[in-house]
Amino acid sequence: MTTAIEQLRTTLAALSLTAIDARLEGLLENAAKKEPSYGDFLLEVMNTEADARRQRYLKARLQLAHLPYVKTFDQFDFSFQPSIDERQIRELRTLRFVHEASNVILLGPPGVGKTHLAVSLAETAIQSGNGAYFMTAHDLVTDLGRAYREGRLDRRMRVYIAPKVLIIDEMGYLPLDDLGATIFFQLVSARYERGSIILTSNKSYGEWGSIFGDPIIATAILDRLLHHSTTINIRGESYRLKERRKAGLIPLPEQQQEQPAVMAHRSRNKREQLP
Ligand code: ADP
Ligand code: MG
Prior knowledge:
Blueprint: H1 4-14, H2 18-34, H3 38-65, H4 86-93, H5 96-99, E1 103-107, H6 114-127, E2 132-136, H7 137-149, H8 153-161, E3 165-171, H9 178-191, E4 196-201, H10 208-212, H11 215-227, E5 229-233, H12 239-246, H13 255-272
Parallel strand pairs: 1-4, 1-5, 2-3, 3-4
Helix pairs in contact: 2-3, 3-6, 7-8, 7-9, 9-11
Adenosine-5'-diphosphate (ADP) is lined by residues 71, 75-77, 80-81, 108, 110-116, 200, 239-240.
């Protein structure tokens, strides 16, 4: 004769309730010990499955997002980067920008944490059930350029339009050709007021003309990108350098070397207000 537990296992398997099945003994033992109400017991059983499904779903979303690494805000040392306004970060973490389809632009020299923060924001958005997709600007334009030459640009474009959050990393490290600039403009226009873009760049807005080789298209792109947006301008030292310096591989910066760097950043900021 089959026992109730055996029948239960068969039913759980038939309904693919794998998490309840895996934790069945623990759940029953716990109930025998704590004697919860029928309602509480049923709730615990159902939550076991619901939580496991949610975890599976988030894991799949995270994999689909194609992030280069997973890092969170908790792993970010804000005291190392005092130019970052933590209030601004707190506001972004509410994900209001995702609901409003507005953009986040992280600017700054290499190693200051632009990608780390972009990834942390993407991770937060995914945890709240939003789709996200990460791509470097170069890979994105290469991919769409190939699709254009093969006559399937519209279809391929959908991959980058569909997610609620698109992360475009390292804009400006390499200049774009005419086709790249046109494709980029199309993408930004298609997402405008529909989905958020999180973009990182080592170039200030004033330098964007040189990325696109054409100040008119650069202005048109910036116009749409910045209309609803938050800019985080990180002016600081590279975290990677700090780590190497700690290891004694690089000498400490000298006072005289610091001075012109600060000046350069200030004048760059002025230009950023006039994209
Ligand atoms: P960027 O994209 O600005 O060039 P990254 O975000 O890739 O720089 O940062 C370089 C490395 O240093 C990454 O491993 C990142 O996690 C780490 N990092 C940068 N800034 C910080 C910080 N303030 N606290 C902790 N880790 C940081
Ligand atoms: Mg980066």
